[in-house]
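The passage that follows is intended for readers who have already worked through the single-chain material. We present the inputs for a multi-component assembly, then the predicted structure in tokenized form, and finally a short commentary. You are encouraged to pause after the input and sketch how you expect the pieces to fit together before reading on.
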Amino acid sequence: MIAIIDYGAGNLKSVQHALTTLGLASEITADPEKLYQAAALILPGVGAFQNAMVELNRLGLVAAIKENAKLGKPILGICLGLQLLYEKSYEQGEWGGLGLLSGEVIRFNTEWKVPHMGWNNLIKGTESAFGREITADDYVYFVHSYYVDTKNPEEVLFWSDYGCKFPAVVKKDNIIGIQFHPEKSGETGMKLLKSFGEMML
Amino acid sequence: MLAKRIIPCLDVRDGRVVKGEKFQNIMDVADPVVLAQKYSELGADELVFYDITASNEERDIFIEIVEKTAEQVHIPFTVGGGIRTIEDFRKVLKAGADKVSINSAAVKNPMIIREAADKFGSQCVVLSIDAKEQADGKWHVYINGGRINTGMDAVWWAKEGERLGAGEIVLNAIDTDGVKTGFSTDITRDISKQVNIPVVASGGAGTMEHFLEVLTIGEADAALAASVFHFGQIEIKQLKEYLYKNEVSVRRG
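Having made your guess, compare it with the prediction:
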């Protein structure tokens, strides 16, 4: 079972529907105990970084996420969920994150429209078995105003470009982050979620 | 590069997709969930569902359709029609919609835009504007299905919507809706230049050239259409190829 972590943010059902389509069992939960029972975790997210960290702390989920990460369980952060995996965010001030990955979350500094919303293409980074069916130039659906300035570019499997190159898919051992919405990215997104499901085997 | 979006629109009544000409002569097309699935497979970037009914029983059928679509279709979709309150927003978002579009109710109570943006985030608040050109060349905002002229300037209203927290503008030119004579390129460009949020052009799609024109000269971020897709006059795949050949950034297959 995959635990979809519910801290009051965003459209968790879409993630669950996508997993169900792939035949992957999941449960939407805010119970830290459930995180320990799960084979894998998904940290979704829409909304503000600060609120998310406050809620994760209040629900006692921060320690549970970190400990499960240490146990080697596959963990997938989606959108804001990816950003939460990093050390620090500059969204509306300066906020500490989960620190499972090294880097900072900063705002797009571009003349283009922000948020970066819509379908954008992927650019190949580090070779990996994860998402091996994805080809560069596949399009995926983004909605975000902030992106990760990573300290470890070798962890980036796919980049995208919106005035600057930024990480779209990152992987460090059992930790995966996806900046776009795989659950809303048609076939390409489903392939990535399938890859995540295979990490549980 | 960020792709220009192609968005089929499904007007739903009595649980079926319909398409009217100038909001009249409504005729039946198909099962909304089946059609949504089909469009997703054919390469639609997003979908819009408009509830064109009013009664409560039909509203419940519509919500069920939204739920079923969310289960089966894995691309973003917007729900509009009959959205009047924050509770209406909550209902359709909970049913699985990614964005909610608001039209007449926002004209009557602009603060609902801010309230919804604060509660659910700007990314899911779409301000839909029905507009019509006046004798003096200005575009006015119309409400209640295009029946009432508010006298409000459409460009001003789009900017005001952005200021209040809308995350996207849909501009529907009433005169060209359903008549396939082309999008209203000039007003689309005027609004796109004035706001810093995506602008979706709607109303008037008849040929692939119309899409090209509004996405380039009209500076629209997306183009929405219904009957040309429903009746198979334009295939989305073919349209994307055409746009790609004309150097428009699109998501293909």
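Commentary: The first strand of chain B starts at residue 5 and ends at 13. Chain B has a mean pLDDT of 91. How closely did your sketch match?
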